[in-house]
Amino acid sequence: MTTAAPDLPRRRRFRVSRKVLPYLLSLPALLTCIGILIPFLTAVVYSLQRYRLSQPWAREFNWGQNYLNFLTDSAFWNTLKVSVTYAFLTVTVELLLGLGIALLLQKRTRLNNFISIMLLMPLMTAPALAALMWKLMTNPGFGILSYFATLLGLENFNWASDPSTAMLTVVIVDVWVYTPFIMILLLAGLRSLPPQPFEAAALDGVPRLFVFWRITLPMLTPFLLTATLFRVIESIQQFDIIYAMTQGGPGDTLTVFQVEAYLNFFQSTNVGRSAALLMILWAITYVLSNIFIKNWLRLREKQRGNA
Amino acid sequence: METHSPLERLLRGIALTLVCLFFMFPIVWIVLMSFQTNETILRVPPSVVFMPTLENYTALITGRLETAAGTLNIDFMGNLWNSLFLSTTSVAIGLLLGVPAAYAFARLKFRGSEDIAFTLLSFRFAPPLLVLLPLTIYFQQLGLANTYGGLIWVYQLIVLPLILWIVRGYFEDIPADIEYAYRIAGHDFWSTFRRIALPLAGPGIAAAGLLSFIFAWNNFVFALVLASADKQPVTVGALAFVTASGIQYGQVAAGIVLSIAPTFALALYAQRYLVEGLSLGAVKG
């Protein structure tokens, strides 16, 4: 084992492979994912074509026509409006609620730790199944929430099946599932803050509200930013909850980007329009995710530095 | 922070109770529903007093639903098995592909390594349907339509970025000196990787595996687009179950309980790593 003779060639072999080694190690993972880039490029091509599955003979390149059509297409503007409204409502409520809960649970007591673990359960529920749970609870015949609504004097409160309350209902489900995500990130953030500034403020008798606005919140900003961007990116693409709950209905009340693209592809078989819709959604998420990744990386380095 | 007035303590208590009520009530209610017959579920006003029955669960497990219209065969256990098989295999393959890559990204800085790592990360944020819709057409041509293999490949989109970025962090946390010392003692690269790096990053690898299992299990859209009934996991199967006619609501509830129980159990077991996994390795809990 310790003889020098077999050791030398082994070292040389190592030096040769040293350059190739990292590529060799990451190649399988890369190849798996490059397979994904091909359908992506295909989607780009589809979005530039007049392509309906029902009329394959009429398939041809119409270049930007699908995109130009959107300008005068009220259904597209509806999709954009619904998606942005959904993302804005869900993320705002989740952020406020998540921050509030994190502040309530900040102290490391046994009860607080227990509650924070319990609160993670909605997040561990598959969003599609969470939508089903709420569907059972809002069923007009036997749903407990429909019953509560009548107790509050709201007769015929139809939750997701009424155009005026459909958005409210899916937003509640989204808030139920994803608030714990923001809560747990902010809780980790709060608990990782250095204690010195807070001790100093307490010694000087600084009012607590002032401490919150001037010390807690600024120090928490990287966490808030990362959590918010993460949720905006996911929320603007929401599919599971809305599809499982209403399939985009009633009417076009909830036809957010991915639901509309899904319906275009499978129901009206308009592949070109579907692909163009998804390309626009991709452009939005691409910009957002670039901002996100920068923040996320800064946070990651800082957290690793502390550890 | 220690000086709380009694009034403030009361308000905090009320706020926390409301929070727990909102987040826990749906789960409790669905569990209660799963032990009821249709008659007790349809009572007005609803009541929590009922004779619990296991009927719903036995019907699901035997796959025979007795309804007013006759006996219905529902393969819910098949859906559960699909979920288990798809998630387990995807995670196993994801670990096999992802752990060596994570090590390469952490230790051996090479040209383009950061770009590649970020490209992989950005897949996590792209709209899944963008890739899935063209894939339905490709899968038909390649013979991958409605196969476990095709699904497991696509599932790598969820599993790989997560594993890569969590495990990478754990490899970076190992002091490089330990590995150098072992190398200087005359061991080659592979045995250093196997005997030093892998065991030290072990907890991180386990956590990444558990978390990506949860995410794979909870996925809905991949299988909705690419799988037909016999390959569908519970998330898609449960939806078909509801729309099927003559279904008893208690059985739907029991189906949901059976589908969320595994991820709850895993989450409780892996809770220490949840923060890290949910932030893709950026924040430690």
UniProtKB/TrEMBL annotation, chain A:
UniProt main location, coarse: membrane
Transmembrane segments annotated in the record for this chain: 20-46, 84-105, 117-137, 166-190, 211-233, 275-293
Gene3D superfamilies: MetI-like
Ranges of residues in domain ABC transmembrane type-1: 80-292
Keywords, alphabetical: Membrane, Transmembrane, Transmembrane helix, Transport
Membrane protein topology class: Multi-pass membrane protein
SUPFAM superfamilies assigned to the protein according to its UniProt record, in alphabetical order: MetI-like
Places the protein is found: Cell membrane
InterPro entries: MetI-like, MetI-like_sf, Sugar_ABC_transporter
Pfam families: BPD_transp_1 (PF00528)
Top-level taxon: Bacteria
Family under the similarity heading: Belongs to the binding-protein-dependent transport system permease family.
The name this protein goes by in its record: ABC transporter permease subunit
Organism annotation: Paragemmobacter ruber
TrEMBL record, chain B:
Keyword Cell membrane tagged: yes
Top-level taxon in the UniProt lineage: Bacteria
Keyword set, alphabetical order: Cell membrane, Membrane, Transmembrane, Transmembrane helix, Transport
One Pfam entry name: BPD_transp_1
Organism: Paragemmobacter ruber
Protein's UniProt name: ABC transporter permease subunit
Domain spans labelled ABC transmembrane type-1: 80-270
CDD domains (alphabetical): TM_PBP2 (cd06261)
